[in-house]
Amino acid sequence: MVGNLLCAPDAEVVIGAEVEAVFEAHDEAEPPYTLVQWRLIG
Fold first, then answer.
1. Cα(9)–Cα(30) distance, rounded to whole angstroms?
2. Half-sphere exposure of 21 (CA within 13 A, CB side)
3. What is the spatial distance between Cα 31 and Cα 42, in angstroms, rounded to a whole number?
4. How far is CA 19 from the centre of its chain?
5. CB-hemisphere CA count at 13 Å for 2?
6. Average of per-residue pLDDT across 7-12
């Protein structure tokens, strides 16, 4: 699944790192939608 990785631009990210989904609601948009973002675990 494609989405943005929420971390500092200079963060060291390795392939296979564990992530969790973060859902960003945009209820004020027409039509409303939700984006999935990713956050590193640990």
1. 31
2. 9
3. 35
4. 9
5. 0
6. 90
Q: How much of the chain is in helix, strand and coil states, percent to nearest 5?
A: 0, 45, 55
Residue 20, phi-psi category: left (phi > 0), alpha (psi -120 to 50), beta (remainder) = beta
Q: Where are the beta strands (DSSP E) in the chain?
A: 4-6, 19-26, 33-40
Q: Give the tens place of pLDDT for each residue, 17-32.
A: 999 999 999 999 999 9
Cα Rg of the chain, angstroms: 13
Locate tokens 């699944």: which residue? 1
